[in-house]
Amino acid sequence: TGSGVKTDYILAERLWEEKSYLPAARQFERVFQRDQEGRLGQQALYRAATTRLLFLKDYDQALKLFTKYLEVAPQGPAARDARLEIGEIYFSRTNQYDEAIRHYSEWLADNPTATEAPGIQLRIGRAQFFLWRFTDAIRTFEALIVRAPRGPLAAEAAYQIGVCQLGNVARYYFIGRHIVVSAAPQEGWRDADATE
Fold it and tell me: In this structure, are residues 165 and 157 in contact, taking their beta carbons and an 8 Å threshold?
């Protein structure tokens, strides 16, 4: 019943306020199971995901819950934030940079004029850098400078371009040294930009 779901939600909030985060997250998840189609159930699902992310550091479960939220409420009030959180988890918490790039790129395509857009573009470039895709990263940082030339992140993007250029030089030097030392380079040292 609706009143039972509300009572369960209030209990979850009370547990959360008492800093009993794991029981609160579980209670929020129970509320969602009872009210998957309703606004309160979807709100509880989002609260469970953020609680698991921010307070329990349970990144795998937070990813599952944010993804579930997007399945049941793709146009919901927190859908934009859920998409962004998924990218953040992949980028900052699990270092799955390919996934971060994919999620950030989708988010950026849907929100090109959002105030967070330059920061997301910077994160895409950083993820490309961490994958040794220096040429792609430089293009991303250059596009950021074009997008917001006077913005606070333009100087950071210019700095990151320099870092990428140094990384490119160091990578080729290191790979060259590795090839000289060993007859064949290891698979992991293959040129990430070779397809360009």
Answer: no
